[in-house]
């Protein structure tokens, strides 16, 4: 936006051009009222005030832009074109007035020839305005690179015919079946009329060709545009659609005044859309406006065609048996009876053909929910989601991608991928669970704010379904892992008991029997056997402690979580690394949460000691309603972004996820590594009361 201090100077030129255009309209109208039809026929001109009014409309659409941006090139091109259009209309009115008030010596009023010259020859420069606006809009600058060269060529082509007409010989103009009512007195090019007529034919073709080439440059700008500039170009596209609609109405009605009003309306809409695009393209949802305009125009055209068919059918069936009054009443009765339902049905059909079912928000969401319910896992849900989005928005391409916990992805695609696409994240809460890929270009890819709301609803519905399916898969995997872990522990314990403790205790029993037998006859052997048995029992107790420690760290039962972490910190501390432990407001913790917190902190400290090269590490436990935060930070070298997570980091994530928690491992800006794990804490209902 332009600062307020830059807007004040724009008020002077805006007021001046507006006043000048209004004065020319008033003067031209006064001259037209003073002229009669004979005067205009003699001057071969029409009502010049109409042309002056058209120019004033163009100026009026540019004034708001000049008011805010007094140096905007597009605004000045429209302003100069509008002023010249009004001046051309003024000259048209004055030419008729000057020829009507001829002096007794046959001389017309002063400047009459000049006015005729402006209307007949200089007025062709109005053809330059539209291509120039298309080349400069919306930035006010030509495109760069090769398109800049093309733009300059387009401007030169647009000026070809006006330059040729500027000093065209009178013989060439008369050969074009246009008789000048008076000698303009302007200099002429000394070229034979027949040759100059051929030049005018070529110039007319070149100038008319400049307009489609300008449109090509505009489309090239649209392909390279993004963000605000693309939205500005959509306003111009909407103006083009409105011009086609208005032109169609004028052609169908085929009335002179209606055609004139339609052309003025088209010009006003184009200028207004350009002004809106420059000043505030987000003042209204242009995509919704575009969709509504296209649908309305299609429905209106269909209804008009049906009315014409109905009138022709009644005329053929009834002929002259109905007078105009009866026919009108019959048509009104039919229209009241069937127009509303037919219009409603046509609106639905046309809207679905053009932009899909995006207008029926409730139906789209409920149909998607039904489709997702029919499929139980992610692999069957994704094609249903892609099809639902493509059907709802009438898109030719939709791709849905869901992220897996292990880094893999699952995707489903509808249609063929275009050149340009955009991505819409699928989020469940703060977690991004996938991506939705849609076309980035085309009328149907334009999403209004209402369409974006519908897309958000679809994405939210899909996120819940994907999240549920993933949780179901995770639950099944967790069950399988629990069964496997339980059987592995049983196998390990059985192996340790059978292959370790069993033989040791069996050997102890045999040695004790041998010691009893040798007690009387060989006391020395008895003492040796008893000593060996004692050592075996001591080793067996160590094995039992090892087994128990593998099931649950004994320090948790002996000391508690905080003291156990203090003990672990002492083990990890050395001359190069100092470890501290702190805790805030710890709630009562279950055995599973204590073990997970202890293991996560121990694993994080182990990684710090082995890989971080840190001087200090800190463990902090923080209790909050419903969760326990385990945080381990150090001042080491941090984790390189290219490093793949190892066993230790994966173990930390898995221990938190086993309990339904989450982890976050990052490197703060001030250096080091920070490991945070949130573990859910179940609060007893008695405690809540």
TrEMBL record:
Catalyses which reaction(s): ATP + protein L-histidine = ADP + protein N-phospho-L-histidine
SMART domains per the UniProt record, alphabetical: HATPase_c
Statement: the UniProt record of this protein carries the keyword Phosphoprotein: yes
Pfam family, one: HATPase_c
SUPFAM superfamilies for the chain: ATPase domain of HSP90 chaperone/DNA topoisomerase II/histidine kinase, GAF domain-like
Residue ranges constituting the Histidine kinase domain according to the UniProt record: 599-683
Name of this chain's protein: histidine kinase
Membrane-crossing segments per the record: 12-33, 45-67, 74-95, 115-137, 149-175, 195-220, 232-251, 257-279, 291-314
Keyword Phosphoprotein: yes
Gene3D superfamilies listed in its UniProt record: 1.20.5.1930, 3.30.450.40, Histidine kinase-like ATPase, C-terminal domain
InterPro entries on file: GAF-like_dom_sf, HATPase_C_sf, HATPase_dom, His_kinase_dom, Sensor_HK_TwoCompSys, Sig_transdc_His_kin_sub3_dim/P
GO molecular function: kinase activity
């Amino acid at each position: 936006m332009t600062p307020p201090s830059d807007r004040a100077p724009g008020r002077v030129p805006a007021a001046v051009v507006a006043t000048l255009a209004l004065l020319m309209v008033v003067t031209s109208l006064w001259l037209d009222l003073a002229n009669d039809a004979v005067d205009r026929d003699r001057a071969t001109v029409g009502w010049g005030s109409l042309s002056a009014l058209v120019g004033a409309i163009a100026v009026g659409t540019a004034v708001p832009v000049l008011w805010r941006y007094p140096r905007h090139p597009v605004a000045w091109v429209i302003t100069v074109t509008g002023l010249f259009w009004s001046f051309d209309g003024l000259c048209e009115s004055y030419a008729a007035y000057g020829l009507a008030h001829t002096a007794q010596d046959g001389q017309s009023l002063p400047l009459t020839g000049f006015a005729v010259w402006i209307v007949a020859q200089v007025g062709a420069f109005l053809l330059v305005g539209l291509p120039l606006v298309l080349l400069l809009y919306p930035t006010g600058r030509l495109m760069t690179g090769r398109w800049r060269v093309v733009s300059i060529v387009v401007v030169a082509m647009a000026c070809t015919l006006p330059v040729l007409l500027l000093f065209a010989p009178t013989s060439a103009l008369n050969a074009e079946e246009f008789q000048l009512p008076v000698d303009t007195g302007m200099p002429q090019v000394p070229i034979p009329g027949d040759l100059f007529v051929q030049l005018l034919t070529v110039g007319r073709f070149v100038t008319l060709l400049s307009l489609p080439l300008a449109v090509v440059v505009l489309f090239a700008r649209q392909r390279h545009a993004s963000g605000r500039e693309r939205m500005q170009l959509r306003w111009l596209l909407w103006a083009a659609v409105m011009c086609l609609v208005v032109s169609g109405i004028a052609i169908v009605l085929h009335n002179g005044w209606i055609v004139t009003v339609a052309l003025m309306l088209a010009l006003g809409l184009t200028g207004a859309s350009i002004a809106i695009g420059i000043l505030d393209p987000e003042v209204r949802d242009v995509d919704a406006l575009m969709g509504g305009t296209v649908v309305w125009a299609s429905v209106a055209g269909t209804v008009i065609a049906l009315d014409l068919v109905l009138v022709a059918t009644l005329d053929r069936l009834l002929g002259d048996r109905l007078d105009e009054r009866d026919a009108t009443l019959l048509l009104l009765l039919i229209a009241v009876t069937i127009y509303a339902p037919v219009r409603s049905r046509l609106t639905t059909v046309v809207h679905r053909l053009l932009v899909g079912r995006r207008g029926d928000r409730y139906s789209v969401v409920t149909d998607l929910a039904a489709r997702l319910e029919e499929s139980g896992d992610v692999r069957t849900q994704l094609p249903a989601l892609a099809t639902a989005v493509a059907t709802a928005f009438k898109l030719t391409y939709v791709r849905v991608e869901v992220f897996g916990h292990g880094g893999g992805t699952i995707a489903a695609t509808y249609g063929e991928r275009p050149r340009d696409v955009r991505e819409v994240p699928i989020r469940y809460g703060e977690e991004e669970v996938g991506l939705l890929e849609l076309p980035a270009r085309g009328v149907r890819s334009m999403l209004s704010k209402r369409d974006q709301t519908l897309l958000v609803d679809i994405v939210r519905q899909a996120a819940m379904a994907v999240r549920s399916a993933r949780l179901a898969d995770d639950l099944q995997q967790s069950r399988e892992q629990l069964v496997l872990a339980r059987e592995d522990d049983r196998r390990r314990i059985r192996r340790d008991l059978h292959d370790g403790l069993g033989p040791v205790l069996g050997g102890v029993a045999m040695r004790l029997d041998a010691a009893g037998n040798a007690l009387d006859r060989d006391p020395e052997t008895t003492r040796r056997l008893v000593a060996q048995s004692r050592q075996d029992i001591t080793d067996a107790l160590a094995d039992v402690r090892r087994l128990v420690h593998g099931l649950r760290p004994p320090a948790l039962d002996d000391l508690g979580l905080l003291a156990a972490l203090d003990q672990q910190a002492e083990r990890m501390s050395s001359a190069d690394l100092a470890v501290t432990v702190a805790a805030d407001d710890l709630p009562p913790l279950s055995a599973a949460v204590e073990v997970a917190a202890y293991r996560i902190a121990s694993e994080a400290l182990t990684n710090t000691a082995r890989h971080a090269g840190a001087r200090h590490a800190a463990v902090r436990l923080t209790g909050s309603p419903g969760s326990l935060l385990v945080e381990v930070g150090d001042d080491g070298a941090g984790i390189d972004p290219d490093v793949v997570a190892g066993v230790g980091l994966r173990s930390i994530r898995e221990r938190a996820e086993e309990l339904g928690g989450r982890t976050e491992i990052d490197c703060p800006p001030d250096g080091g590594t920070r490991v945070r794990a949130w573990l859910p804490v179940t609060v007893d209902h008695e405690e809540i009361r």
